């Protein structure tokens, strides 16, 4: 996350929690010359995020964003569920979703690949252990990755 999206998350986290949800990801991107501030949420009680949840949180955070003005210039606000391929962004996320099928991308090539698909066996404050769907060139199917090596990760929503 950039400094501006970190600031958005910091400003809005308490408000979103009061509304029964948690911010998982904040992205600011430009597509077709239109800037979009995307806020992905999940419910604190673990149930599915509804359209009503997104609408309610969108209205509340829109007011707060107008007051605090953390993003200069025009942008569209998009509040959505994390979906079935939820991003894993913090050590707590990896720990919480241990046992699930995941896709992990690394910054640099390791063992002749940058994408690792398989079961997230365990996670701690330093990194993760995975059992891979397809073996490494050396025949091993287990890999340990440190968080600083991971550029992105998400649950493989089409497995499990």
Describe, in short, the structure shown.
The protein has 160 residues and is of the alpha+beta class. Helices cover 25% and strands 41% of the residues.
Task: Explain the overall architecture.
It is a single chain. The chain contains three helices and eight strands; from the N terminus they run αββαβαβββββ. It is an alpha+beta fold. It is elongated. It has two domains: 3-81, RimP-like superfamily, N-terminal (GMP Synthetase, Chain A, domain 3, 2-Layer Sandwich), CATH 3.30.300; 91-155, SH3 type barrels. Helix content is 25%, strand content 41%. Strands 7-6-5-4-8 form a five-stranded antiparallel β-sheet. It has a three-stranded mixed β-sheet with strand order 1-2-3.
Shape, principal axes of CA atoms: elongated
Strand order in the sheet with the most strands: 7-6-5-4-8
Structural class: alpha+beta
Uncertain residue segments: none
- Beta strand count: 8
Chain-wise SSE layout:
Elements: H1 3-18, E1 21-31, E2 34-43, H2 51-68, E3 76-81, H3 91-96, E4 101-110, E5 113-123, E6 127-132, E7 142-146, E8 150-155
Parallel strand pairs: 2-3
Antiparallel strand pairs: 1-2, 4-5, 4-8, 5-6, 6-7
Helix pairs in contact: 1-2
Task: Give keywords.
160 residues; alpha+beta; GMP Synthetase, Chain A, domain 3; SH3 type barrels; five-stranded antiparallel sheet; three-stranded mixed sheet
């Amino acid at each position: 996350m950039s400094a501006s999206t970190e600031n958005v998350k910091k400003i809005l986290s308490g408000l979103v929690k009061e509304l029964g949800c948690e911010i998982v990801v904040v992205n600011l991107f430009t597509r077709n010359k239109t800037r979009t501030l995307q806020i992905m949420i999940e419910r604190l009680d673990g149930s599915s995020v509804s359209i009503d949840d997104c609408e309610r949180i969108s209205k509340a955070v829109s007011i707060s964003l107008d007051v605090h003005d953390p993003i200069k210039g025009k942008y569209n606000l998009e509040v959505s569920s994390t979906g079935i391929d939820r991003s894993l962004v913090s050590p707590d996320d990896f720990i919480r979703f241990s046992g699930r099928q995941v896709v992990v991308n690394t910054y640099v090539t390791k063992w002749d690949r940058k994408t690792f698909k398989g079961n997230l066996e365990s996670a701690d404050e330093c990194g993760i252990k995975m059992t891979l769907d397809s073996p490494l060139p050396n025949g091993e199917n287990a890999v340990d990755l440190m968080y600083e090596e991971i550029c992105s990760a998400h649950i493989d929503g089409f497995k499990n």
